[in-house]
Amino acid sequence: MTVPQHRRPGFSKRAQFEIFTSYVAAVIGAVLGFVLLFVSLVHPASFAFARTAAGDIAEPVGQFSAGSRAAGKSIFATIAGYIDAGSKNAALRKELQLARAQLIEAQAIGEENKRLKQVVRLRETDGQPAAVARLIGSTPSSSRRFALIGVGRTDGIREGQPVRSPVGLVGRVLEVGTNTARVLLVTDAQSIVPVRRANGNVAGFAQGQSDGTLVVRLIEMGINPLRAGDVLVTSGSGGLYRPNVPVAVVRNVTRDGAVARILSDPAASDFVTVEPIWLPITDLPPPPPEPGA
Amino acid sequence: MRLIGNLISHTRMQRQRINRAPSPVLAFVVPWISIAIGSMLPLSFVIASAPVLPPLGFLLLVCWQLLRPGLLPLWAGFPLGLFDDLFSGQPFGSAIFLWSATMIALEVLSGWLRWRGFWQDWLVANVTVVCYLVLALCVAALAGGPWNLLLIVPQTLLAFVMFPLLTRLVALLDLLRLARVRVVA
């Protein structure tokens, strides 16, 4: 097929002028885009109002697709459930017995923990979730990793609040709109989470790589004690993230840290909870009474 | 290569009724709406922990521009890119700039090319998409994203495969665009 000739202006002055103005308009558009890009690189939050407004307007679409996503997943789960129901039932019974025993132990440990915290006068903001929300969107084609949740300022959401699913940490709130909020996922390269190994006192930082994995760097240099399969939880240092929330599992160990796979895949989590910002406050013990007084 | 016109009968949609004419509103809005819906892919039923899906809005823009050059005005990159920036997660202005540049580049290119064909369009689209994804990665890296070219390989390959399908979709939308729905009194 040869090229259609309809855009050859010929001798028509008007047609020539139209082509010229369209080029001028397009170049102006590109230049404006470059300026806007420069502004948003210098001040990343400059256009947050536009993004949050768009998120608020498009929220019903996201809620609808989140609902259909959950429905689609449950259909597959129902079909898969029939295939190995018997053996799974037996295995689950055994697991339940073990879990009951461990639960009683955990309750005892929790009580002890509470008592010890009273002894050192450590006060915490309570772990009550600020809101429960659905993930209504994510950025599936950008190398920056954000997600959209269906709660906003009217539900008491504020910037910086951590977001988690039942299985682990998802991210933290970055921009808040009226009915929606943007979440910086832990897999984004801008997200740095203080972590420690679940068993043992190995502390470090986990930074996202945008591909579903985190790079873990340890605070103490020297022999790397991490092994593949180690579970990393938040350490709570620096505030913001409550301690002991599972984050990732070590996949392979590098020279001075590890590469870890996130536990809470956003694709698998239906509902997430937004938690209040965690700030530990240690009250100094009252000075002992002077012996002479 | 004949497009979707041989699957859904051209005659049925366009020639059937005597006192019917294409709606000018429909003829105008279909490309804009379809690209905007492609830009709202982030709100779809896919929640991804890595950039795995190709930029659907951009692919549709390229398809429309290759299949119906001159249908979208040359400055269409500005409003459509602005809409895409609201949802894409890229720094604001990234799509405005890159989409405007793409429109100009494709227009200039279509002035150079003496011949049109499916394979050539596919090649043009693939080169455009690779350039766009690499530049978008650079822009995101400036805003604090990772600098890792391997990250965009899956979505680039998906975009290569998706282009022929999207061409068919755009061809179908083009038939819809010119469907004779308006009753001529």
Describe the structure.
The complex is a heterodimer of chains A (293) and B (185). Chain A is an alpha+beta fold and 293 residues long. Chain A folds into two domains: 49-127; 131-277, Rod shape-determining protein MreC, domain 1 (Thrombin, subunit H), CATH 2.40.10.340. Chain A has helices spanning 13-42, 48-57, 59-83, 85-119, and strands at 122-123, 131-138, 146-149, 162-165, 168-176, 181-185, 192-197, 203-208, 213-218, 231-234, 246-254, 257-262, 271-274, 281-282. Chain B contains seven helices and two strands; from the N terminus they run H-E-H-H-H-H-H-H-E. A two-stranded antiparallel sheet of chain B has the order 1-2. Chain B has helices spanning 10-14, 24-39, 56-67, 77-88, 94-112, 118-142, 153-177, and strands at residues 20-22, 180-183. The chains are: A alpha+beta (293), B mainly alpha (185). Chains A and B meet through helix 1, helix 2, helix 3, strand 2 and strand 3 of A and helix 4, helix 5 and helix 6 of B.
| Fraction in helix of chain A | 25-40%
Let me know the number of strands of chain B: 2
**SSE topology string of chain B:** HEHHHHHHE
Report the sheet with the most strands of chain A, covering strand number, pairing sense and barrel closure.
Answer: 6 strands, antiparallel, barrel
Using the alpha-carbon principal axes, give the shape of chain B: globular
Helix content of chain B: 55-70%
What top-tier CATH class of the largest domain in chain A fits best? Answer: Mainly Beta
CATH superfamily of the largest domain in chain A: Rod shape-determining protein MreC, domain 1
End-to-end Cα distance of chain B, whole Å, is 38 Å
Distance between the termini of chain A: 105 Å
The Rg value of chain B, from CA coordinates, equals 18 Å
User: How many H/I helical runs of chain A?
Assistant: 4
Mean pLDDT of chain A: 84
The number of strands of chain A is 14
CATH architecture of the largest domain in chain A: Beta Barrel
Uncertain spans of chain B: 1-7
Radius of gyration of chain A: 26 Å
Greatest interface and its participating residue counts:
A-B, 67 and 66 residues
State mean pLDDT of chain B (0 to 100 scale).
87
Order of helical and strand elements of chain A: HHHHEEEEEEEEEEEEEE
